[in-house]
Amino acid sequence: SLAATSRIHFKRIAARAMRQVLVDVSRRRSARKRPGGAAFVLVPFDDEADARIEVAEDVLAVDTALKDLQRRNPRQAAVVEGKFFGGLEVKELAEALDVSESTVRNDWRLARAWLRSQLRKT
Known about the structure:
Oligomer: single chain
Helix content: over 70%
Radius of gyration: 15 Å
Order of helices and strands: HEEHHHH
Strand order of the largest sheet: 1-2
Shape: flat
């Protein structure tokens, strides 16, 4: 329905805006370089683990890795952005991206593994 599509579209826009807000705040906090001042946000990154983004530098690392993923696989990046920053459900992402729910789950699994490997390098 149009209402459901509009709601999902709004959530995707909100996810992108939330990502930008977190990145901007993280950049400002990192620029200040106050000891201990960076720990300000807890964002769940993994469905089953306690992996969380806790400091400004981590948010910036996720943003950098997500930009790289965007170049490699735009759909996987859209899934990560929607789930991570916007809290969209698999069904909503499948509808928004015009793919099956199993494709979204697979993209999420692959993107999480790839992002974890990239974040370990930093």
